[in-house]
Specification:
- This protein is an alpha+beta fold.
- The protein has two domains: about 5-155 and about 315-455, FAD/NAD(P)-binding domain, CATH 3.50.50.60; about 160-305, Elongation Factor Tu (Ef-tu), domain 3.
- Helix content is about 30%, strand content about 15%.
- The chain is built from twelve helices and 18 strands.
- The chain has helices at about 10-20, 65-75, 75-85, 95-110, 140-150, 195-205, 225-230, 285-290, 315-320, 370-385, 400-410, 435-455; strands at about 5, 25-30, 55, 85, 90-95, 115, 130, 155-160, 165, 175, 190, 260-265, 270-275, 300-305, 305-315, 330, 345, 355-360.
- The strands form five sheets. A six-stranded antiparallel beta sheet has the order 10-11-12-13-9-14.
- A hairpin with a 6-residue loop joins strand 12 (about 260-265) and strand 13 (about 270-275).
- The longest helix is centred in the C-terminal third of the chain and has 23 residues, at about 435-455.
- It is globular, with a radius of gyration of 23 Å.
- The two termini are about 25 Å apart.
């Protein structure tokens, strides 16, 4: 029997299992795919990326670049896989999603202390467990969470962007380039003049959309807003957002276009392209019609249409401790369902269950790297507990520590997930007015203190 149970084989669960196993803990990963798929996953591979294939900026002046550096310093499996499957992506770290997931699956499958069990769980079993089921937690486990946590269960809608067959693009109308020339000619750009943009915009806001079901409120996360929802905020909103032409010049005219749609390669061979920033809830016929108005995509063939799915997360400030354990304890023997609050669990604010950790997007962070970071910490925390070692936590001045602080000290009831950004890191003791120098100083401080944590965590 394994010492640690990890429920969910996404980025967080895979990272948590790996971190625990390399510290000598035997781990069982429960993953319901491929027997039971979600509305967004396509394979049974562990660590499958269901949205973009980009892991964002690599610059230390960007929160994602700093978080990646912290993950790499700690020996992250996800970062190891990213390096092994990297493809051109300008200033961003882009990966071949199939190679990326296959690498993670292979490393975990071959590890002598890790067992992968292809089965769905409808509740959290006894023993030390990491709950990392992600934004698409199954209805059965979501029901268990509702029963366990009560009203601390929230959700929002997320949308994913389409992927286009490279052979269906009209290359006479598009050009390869990265914004400001950073990273090489890694993006395929579809330029629009003012008339073309106007036609596209009008069709976009009028197209038929997939709406929320009658019994569900519709909540859209600001950091992953559907293109058409953003467009409703004003005619030029998306032209200053995902369609901004800044830093790009059409080589045929030598001028900056009125608007630009960027396509990012999905793999090293560039046989498929992701429409950057085009997460959408348009119905499939609407996507084909509206996106076919983009120069170069008139005859585009969609390998994957954009879609909408429900993201599940807990009200972390209310129910999560800063060691990522739930604030619940099992009731005393003899207390059964149907007692005072109708549950065999009760919340103990300020106390810890000690055996149920929560990681990944379910914990209230948003994004691939952020989910990985919470998985890494949960794996370290759980392994130290099982080895009888004291808890060690990272400084709030690090990206990992700042994310934990964000999800555990926010306002309960109105809590919303967040990506990593310099805004959630504590300010410097001495303010630096120059923004670039300020970010560099914060990054240097974070890395110094993160290295201290990594040394103690082993």
């Amino acid at each position: 029997m394994s010492d640690l149970i990890v429920i969910g084989g996404g980025l967080a669960g895979s990272e948590a299992a790996y971190q625990a196993a390399k510290r000598g803990i035997s781990v069982a990963i429960y993953e319901m795919r491929p027997a039971r798929q979600t509305e967004a996953h396509k394979t049974g591979l562990l660590g499958e990326l269901v949205c973009s294939n980009s892991l964002r900026s690599e610059s230390l002046s960007n929160g994602h670049g700093l978080l990646k550096r912290e993950l790499s310093t700690a020996g992250s499996l996800v970062m190891e896989a990213a390096m092994a499957s990297q493809i051109p992506g300008g200033s961003a770290l882009a990966v071949d999603r199939e190679r990326f997931a296959a690498y993670i699956t292979g490393r975990l499958t071959m590890h002598p202390l890790i067992t992968i069990i292809r089965s769905e769980l409808d509740c959290v079993p006894d023993g030390v467990c990491i709950l990392a089921t992600g934004p698409l937690t199954s209805p059965a486990l979501s029901g268990w969470l509702m029963d366990t946590l009560g009203a601390g269960h929230l959700y929002f809608y997320d949308a994913i962007a389409p992927i286009i067959d490279a052979t269906s693009i009209d290359y006479e109308k598009v050009f390869f380039a990265s914004r400001y020339g950073k990273g090489g000619d890694d993006y395929l750009n579809c330029p629009m003049n003012e008339r073309e943009y106007g036609i596209f915009y009008d069709a976009l806001v009028e197209a038929d959309k997939v709406m929320a079901r009658d019994f569900e409120d519709e909540r859209v996360f600001e950091g992953c807003m559907p293109l058409e929802a953003m467009a409703l905020r004003g005619r030029d909103t998306i032209r200053f957002g995902p369609l901004k032409p800044v830093g790009l010049r059409d080589p045929r005219t030598g001028k900056e276009p009125f608007a630009v749609v960027q396509l990012r390669p999905e793999n090293e061979d560039k046989t498929a392209f992701n429409m950057v920033g085009f997460q959408t809830r348009l119905r499939q016929p609407g996507q084909k019609m509206v996106f076919g108005l983009i120069p170069g995509l008139e005859k585009a063939e969609f390998l994957r249409y954009g879609s909408v799915h429900r993201n599940t997360f807990i009200d972390s400030p209310k129910v999560l401790n800063d060691d990522l354990t739930l604030k619940i304890n099992r009731k005393a023997d003899g207390m059964k369902n149907g007692s005072e609050n109708g549950s065999e669990y009760e919340m103990q604010v300020g106390k810890t269950s000690g055996n149920i950790y929560v990681a990944g997007q379910l914990s209230g962070v948003e994004g691939y790297l952020e989910s990985t970071a919470m998985g890494l910490l949960a794996g370290i925390y759980a392994s130290r507990r099982l080895r009888g070692l004291p808890l060690v936590t990272p400084s709030e001045n690090t990206c990992h520590g700042a994310l934990v602080r964000y999800i555990t000290t926010g306002k309960s009831g109105s809590f919303q997930p967040s990506n990593i950004n310099f805004g959630i890191l504590p300010p410097l003791e001495k303010n630096i007015r120059d923004k670039a120098k300020k970010k560099l100083a914060m990054a240097e401080r974070a890395l110094r203190q993160w290295e201290m944590f990594v040394e103690r965590a082993d």
